[in-house]
Amino acid sequence: MADPLVDRERLVADLTALVRLPSITGSEEGIATWAAGALRDLGLAVETVSPDPAAVRADPAWPGEEMTRTALPVVVGRAGSAGGRRIILSGHLDVVPPGDPATWTVDPWGADIRDDALYGRGACDMKGGVASILAAVRALGAAGDLDRLDGELVVAFVPSEEDGGQGTLAAIRAGVTGDLAIITEPSNLDVVVAHAGAITFRLTVPGRAAHASQRREGVSALDNLFVLSQALAADETRRNEAETDPLMTALGLPYPTIIGIVAGGEWASTVLDRVTADGRYGVRLGQSAAEAESELRAAIDAACAADPFLRAHPATVEITGGRFGSARVPSDHPLPVGLAETVEAVTGRRPTMLGEAYGADMQMFVNVGATPCVIFGPGDVRVAHSADEHVPLGEVVDCARVLAAWIRRELIPAG
User: Fold this and answer.
1) Going from the N-terminus, what domains does the chain have, and what CATH number goes with each?
2) Could you say which DSSP state residue 352 is in?
């Protein structure tokens, strides 16, 4: 059932162009212009929605942000007719920074191809999935199927997924909701039906300054941070051991807590009187970001109460960046069931229904847009955000074939 109309050469050209367009979160205007042109070339009616970021920040469902931005360009393409069933294919256009170029063996923006995999920042997360969507729509157009849709196909390309998901929130507020949605994030062509979430936090930990020669007269904020990091480790263990859902327990550590940035000190021979620590705290399945924040604060408050110095001088907690909630669609819902059947028909392989530990825009569609949504796309999330990030081209092609077949199944009447 492999779709002969999926044009591999054009797909690779699209993916190459996407990777060669740097689109670090906060600077997506250029790639949004490219994406709008690509969708118009495929015959879709295209609209670019660019709300004022300040207005989006005022939305009660705003999921935070970690990068400064002046624009929030959302590209929406439509085919078919409104009023019936609406199917959404969505992908984010933003990528994380490439990091130290010396850790790469290729140019992060070069789109080099090695062993039938395309390399570059965002190749896996998630420009490979975006290229699959374009190729699927191209195949539908080549077969004349875009003119036979019994309902509406909506393609949404969004910014700002990497730092919370406000691009998808803006799309939802612009009317991008529907009956079913697929996000083509990397899943190795398995079907992600559940994902955890994450919040980004900052601890400000006090101490008491003293001259290094009189160290015992001071209280090191770094030592106090160690007390709190031990408390967070114990909290992480408790939260993960309490999980009973097989989709999440299979991950081993579905709700990790880390401290990724530590800063403090002004003089090498002064006892530290203040340290800040930025980190990530997992949002449990079925939990909102606000509920996870309450758990985080409770863990820090309890640790401060148990320490003589911190009891009198407690650390503070600030939520500073993305606020990814969790999301789930039942494994027996028609969306994952129908998609799994299509994957098997196209590829000969029955996909696994998975839970994932990362946050994603799926939670926006499910929790804010009331749209059943799953993740299905090419690539392995373990290479996302890494040096030498890459995506297998065969998976990008197979994803496009599956998407085209699934759209036909959902929106084209039999016979």
Assistant:
1) 8-195+326-411 (3.40.630.10), 197-321 (3.30.70.360)
2) P
Are residues 75 and 167 in contact, defined by beta-carbon separation less than 8 angstroms? Answer: no
Whether 168 and 183 have beta carbons less than 8 Å apart is answered as: no
The reported pTM is 0.94
Can you spell out the DSSP letters for 54-70? HHHHTSTT----SS--S
Residue keyed to tokens 């110095």: 309
Copy the structure tokens of residue 16. Answer: 């190459």
Which residues, 6+ apart, have CB-to-CB distance to 354 below 8 Å?
187, 190, 191, 192, 193, 194, 247
pLDDT above 60: residue 1: no
Q: Kindly report, residue by residue over 159-200, the tens digit of the pLDDT.
A: 999 999 999 999 999 999 999 999 999 999 999 999 999 999
pLDDT tens per residue across span 258-308: 999 999 999 999 999 999 999 999 999 999 999 999 999 999 999 999 999
The CA-CA-CA angle for residues 377, 200, 24, to 5°, reads 50
